[in-house]
Amino acid sequence: MALRETADQIFPELAQNQRNFLLAGGAGLVVSAVGYATNPEQFFPAYLLAYMLVLGLSLGALAFTMIHQLTGGAWGVVARQSLGAATRVLPYLTVLFVPIILGMPYLYEWTHADVVAHDEILQGKAAYLNTTFFIVRAAFYFAVWNGLAFVLNKWSKEQDETANPALPLRMQRLSAGGLLLYAFTMTFASFDWIMSRDPHWFSTIYGALIMVGQGLITLAFQIIILTWLARRKPMSDALTTTYLHDLANLMFGFTVLWAYMSFSQYLIIWSGNLPEEITWYLDRMQGGWTALGVTLVIFHFAAPFFLLLMRGIKQNRGLVRKVAMLVIVARVLDLFWLIAPEKTHEGGAISLMQAISWQDVVVPVALFSLWIGFYMQQLRQRPLLPVNDPQFEDALGPALAHAHNAGAAH
Amino acid sequence: MAEFESPTTLVAAANKTREAGYVDVDAYSPIPIEELHHAIGFKNTKLPLMVLIGGLLGGTGGFSLEYWVSAIAYPLNVGGKPLVSWPMFIPVTFECTILGAALTAVFGMFMLNKLPQPYHPVFNNPRFAMASRNRFFLCIEATDQQFDLDKTRAFLDTLGAHEVTTVAE
Q1: How many C-alpha atoms does A405 have within 13 Å on its Cβ side?
Q2: Which residues contact B57 (CB under 8 A, 6 or more apart)?
Q3: Which of A144, A236, A274, B137 is most buried by its number of CB atoms within 10 A?
Q4: Which residue from A242, A267, A309 is facing B34, i.e. has the nearest CB?
């Protein structure tokens, strides 16, 4: 029966695509290595940006897998196997984190003893912001994420094969705790890996902003891949207009949530106007950064907001995919806005033109290609739809049966 | 009016009715049936557009109110910021947008679907109470151009209905 066929059997070309993406990613990494050798100052921020981008694709998928276990919903039944494949890329991402540890001296000024020696604030933060504890924390985050992804995927596979009725409750229980753990670890990971680039500055909503970004890029990517998989059965029947509309609505919701949180952070800091907080925005309101800020307001919020208000777009596979691509580009720009403005020794930040380099394009493209290659490798191994999901019949039964009858009639 | 025992027969019948050229058709079901909108030839309403306009009006109103209060009616220097500090106006603008859109959605819906409606001719059919339990009804209204009591009744009889009744005005 077609439902039991793996993605590999339905889409034999995935193997070729996977190889192409892995080769492109590998070639990109070779070019990036040239960048590393010639200009490590530019390489590491570009690598951090690329890394946070692809990490979002896996962790966002992990979060949505757990949310779907708790809330249910047909959109999740459609996306579940693809989300699972995205979480199974996490072990590779764990390895790809190593360059960030190697690049710490380039990325984080608090790693330099001489800087800390002249900086009272950094001395006060040294108990938290020090190299050893940074690595210990990172190890803990990856242990949590890999552990959750491993167990959930193991049970999901078992469910595919045996339909063990005890599994849904077990997955729900793990997901409840897992979501809390994800929110906790990702908050601190975003503090450690991005916020501490500007170690004097702090914002408590930062972790939530990064998580919303991860959710957003995950939805965008899943919409692209699901509409692609919908070229053939069974996804062509399963991804009904209604479910595509649901996913697009979620993407709309996350776009608004991102804008809401970004703006509330800005509003609070702007109206407080306190020296220890406002510097972060002052750095981004000079040297050409304002142009990037305005671009973000337009392309990360206004454009997707108005496009996704329209039902005609949300229900059209080709159009909603284009909006999803726009969202992914906007995510890259947002991460660049967060990561790239580096402090100069005179105080203040470098200008946009100083911050940007060819590496900011090549490294993200390389890691993104690699990620997609690994994702495809994982996707190929399992069926495209979770036939033993407790909601499967309710969500997809009518759509698949209808298609079956229509097929038989012709 | 025809009575059916399952959603699938209702949808099939509604499709045939639409194809037969009937326009003033309504269907009653105890559960939401996704395909039914299309089957009875239901057109999208003007409601989304009304909500958009309501939201825009609310937002503009909220922003103007803030502008008028802080720059014209009661200019007060707060923290050395300009009188027209637009970031400060955004929360009120946002909330008023939601308020305008939500109120338009609720009252626009009542306006368009004419609820609450204490009387409707279909209530004259004693079996219609089952529309909120386990029966599905399809009603061709007498206002339809093609409506002809005998022919329409005969047509409904061909659709495999459990029972066909004529409902008085």
Answers
A1: 6
A2: B100
A3: B137
A4: A242
Spell out which chain B residues touch chain A, with contact meaning CB-CB distance below 8 angstroms. 34, 44, 48, 52, 79, 81, 87-88, 90-91
- Element (DSSP H or E) covering residue A253: helix A241-272
Q: Is residue A401 situated within a structural domain? A: no
Contact between B88 and A271 using a beta-carbon 8 Å cutoff: yes
Helix (H) or strand (E) holding A14: helix A13-38
B138 versus A367: which is more confidently predicted? Answer: A367
Q: Which two tokens stand for residue B64?
A: 């103007």
* Cα A57 to Cα A44: distance, rounded to the nearest angstrom: 20
- In chain B, what is the straight-line distance between the N-terminal and C-terminal CA atoms, in Å? 12
CA distances (Å), A243 to each of A211, A315, A379, A395, in order?
Answer: 23, 9, 20, 9
**Alpha-carbon gap: A336 to the closest alpha carbon of chain B (Å):** 24
- pLDDT computed for residue A409 by the predictor: 45
User: From CA B150, how far away is CA A38, in angstroms rounded?
Assistant: 89
Q: How far apart are CA A261 and CA A283, in angstroms?
A: 20
Pairwise pLDDT comparison (B130 vs A410), residue with the higher score: B130
| CA nearest to B34 within chain A | A242
Give A308's contacts (C-beta < 8 A, 6+ positions apart): A248, A249, A251, A252, A255, A314, A323
Nearest to B65 by CA among B28, B94, B93: B93
- Find the closest chain A residue to B81 by CA distance: A271
- CA atoms of A118 and A116, how far apart (whole Å): 5
Q: Specify the 3-state DSSP secondary structure of B140.
A: strand
CA neighbor of B140 nearest in space, from B9, B7, B20: B20
| Mean model confidence pLDDT for chain B | 85
Please tell me which residue of chain A has the smallest CA distance to B79: A271
Q: What total number of domains does chain A contain?
A: 1
| pLDDT by 10-residue block (mean), chain A, 410 residues | 80 93 96 93 94 97 96 91 96 96 93 90 92 96 97 93 89 96 97 93 94 97 95 87 93 96 94 89 90 95 94 92 97 95 78 89 96 96 89 81 59
Q: Which domain, by its residues, includes A204? A: 2-391
User: CA-CA distance, A279 to A349, in Å (whole number)?
Assistant: 9
- The model's pTM is 0.87
Give the Å distances, CA to CA, from A334 to A292, B22, B28.
9, 54, 49
- Inter-chain residue contact B87 with A271, CB threshold 8 Å: yes
Nearest CA in chain B to A274: B79
Is A267–B90 a contact, with Cβ atoms under 8 angstroms apart?
A: yes
Instruction: Point out the residue among A242, A266, A311 whose CB comes nearest to the CB of B87.
Output: A266
Tens of pLDDT, residues B75-122: 988 888 888 888 899 999 999 999 999 999 999 999 888 888 888 888
A171: in domain: yes
